[in-house]
């Protein structure tokens, strides 16, 4: 089991089961919510358990997706697709301690910022 939280601790969670490898997303929405690209992992339905969620707010960022963040400190924590049967993506940097995660791919590379380069040999998908 792994735990995680937002910066102020208003949102705390536990992750049950195995985490999927992280995906680096370079889309405009991820860059706007984080200030850079994001790294996110994912769990199956029921494997994300909130131990504190009174400051968690969900924002409808597009017709298909919502983003979960803390309304006190502003930490971007989660992403979910309306058709994804309860799966939630968790921002890898919000997990406490060592995660053991490795980045498996870069997505939305066509939208990446011009101020950085992707220098690893991990697979890339433009959209």
Automatic annotation (TrEMBL):
- Pfam families for the chain: GFA
Report if keyword Transcription regulation is assigned: no
Mention one GO molecular function: carbon-sulfur lyase activity
Work out whether the entry's keyword set contains tRNA-binding: no
Per UniProt, residues of the CENP-V/GFA domain are 2-117
Q: What keywords would UniProt list here?
A: Lyase, Metal-binding, Zinc
Q: Which family does it belong to?
A: Belongs to the Gfa family.
The name under which this protein is listed is Putative glutathione-dependent formaldehyde activating enzyme
**Organism per entry:** Octadecabacter antarcticus 307
Organism phylogeny = Bacteria, Pseudomonadati, Pseudomonadota, Alphaproteobacteria, Rhodobacterales
């Amino acid at each position: 089991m792994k735990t995680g939280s937002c910066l102020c601790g208003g949102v705390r969670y536990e992750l049950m089961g195995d985490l999927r490898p992280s995906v680096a997303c370079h889309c405009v929405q991820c860059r706007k919510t984080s200030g850079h690209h994001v790294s996110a992992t994912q769990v199956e339905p029921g494997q994300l358990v909130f131990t504190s969620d009174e400051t968690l707010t969900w924002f409808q960022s597009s017709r298909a997706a919502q983003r979960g963040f803390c309304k006190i400190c502003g930490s971007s924590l989660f992403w979910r697709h309306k058709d994804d049967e309860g799966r939630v993506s968790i921002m890898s940097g919000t997990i406490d301690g060592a995660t053991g995660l490795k980045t498996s791919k870069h997505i939305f590379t066509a939208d990446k910022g011009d101020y950085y380069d992707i220098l690893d040999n991990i697979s890339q998908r433009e959209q």
